[in-house]
Write a structure and sequence with these properties.
The complex is a heterodimer of chains A (about 120) and B (about 110).
Chain A (H helix, E strand, L loop, with lengths): L3 E4 L2 E4 L5 E7 L5 E8 L3 E10 L2 E4 L7 E2 L9 E3 L8 E8 L1 E2 L2 E2 L3 E2 L3 E5 L1
Parallel strand pairs in A: 2-13
Antiparallel strand pairs in A: 1-3, 3-8, 4-5, 4-9, 5-6, 7-8, 9-12, 9-13, 10-11
Chain B lengths: L3 E2 L5 E4 L4 E7 L7 E6 L6 E6 L3 E5 L2 E6 L4 E6 L8 E8 L8 E3 L3 E6 L1
Parallel strand pairs in B: 2-11
Antiparallel strand pairs in B: 1-3, 3-8, 4-5, 4-9, 6-7, 7-8, 9-10, 9-11
The chains are: A mainly beta (about 120), B mainly beta (about 110).
């Protein structure tokens, strides 16, 4: 089944303790992206990647890091989490081809709580 | 700052009627437009995308795009209770080499049985 897989689904952590949220897609997509969703603010892009070793900032990159060492994986790293990073996080990927911008397919989400 | 605006609702529609959802966007350079459906606590699910002015139909869904007015809409015919969800309008941010989507905050749709 074609999908974007995120882990973990739920995570409670303490301020300052480094964590990584993993994301993997099995569709051979070049483009991948991370979003966070907060009540009243909607979905906002954190980082995106257009291919292996090519990443760039979205709208809210502060406090986050990403890497793209393999095409299928795009982990999100919080080096020193803070309570304002408590949110619902989504990883997404999309294909390219023929000059068409296809829509993103989203993972199931990771609900992160930082206390 | 590129923006996508939607009425937050809730929009209440009787079962079997047509639900009409609207969206405006600020970036005239936007080329690709998407509608996602999101059930509470779940991930967004792509239901329609449109690139050209005019209408695009897929089953009970019709997306409409008017680039001159910077307006996108989604019509849902024969609305069902299972259509009750939040509908997110999204615009590709491809200008300047960037990628990803700018989302509106969503319209909460309620289909009344």
């Amino acid at each position: 089944e074609a999908q974007v897989t995120q882990n973990p689904r739920y995570l409670i952590t303490v301020t300052g303790k480094k964590l990584t949220v993993t994301c993997s897609q099995n569709m051979n997509h070049e483009y991948m992206s991370w979003y966070r969703q907060d009540p009243g603010l909607g979905l906002r892009q954190i980082y995106y990647s257009m291919n292996v070793e090519v990443t760039d900032k979205g709208d809210v990159p502060e406090g986050y890091k990403v890497s793209r060492k393999e095409k299928r994986n795009f982990p999100l790293i919080l080096e020193s989490p803070s309570p304002n990073q408590t949110s619902l996080y989504f990883c997404a990927s999309r294909r390219t081809g023929g000059g068409v911008v296809y829509g993103y397919t989203f993972g199931s989400g990771t609900r992160l709580t930082v206390v | 700052q590129k923006e996508v605006e939607q009425n937050s609702g809730p929009l209440s529609v009787p079962e079997g009627a047509i639900a009409s959802l609207n969206c405006t966007y600020s970036d005239r350079g936007s080329q690709s437009f998407f509608w996602y459906r999101q059930y509470s606590g779940k991930s967004p699910e792509l239901i329609m995308f449109i690139y050209s002015n005019g209408d695009k139909e897929d089953g009970r869904f019709t997306a409409q795009l008017n680039k001159a007015s910077q307006y996108v809409s989604l019509l849902i015919r024969d609305s069902q209770p299972s259509d009750s969800a939040t509908y997110l309008c999204a615009v590709n941010r491809g200008g300047g080499g960037a990628d990803g989507l700018t989302f509106g905050k969503g319209t909460h749709l309620i289909i009344q049985p």
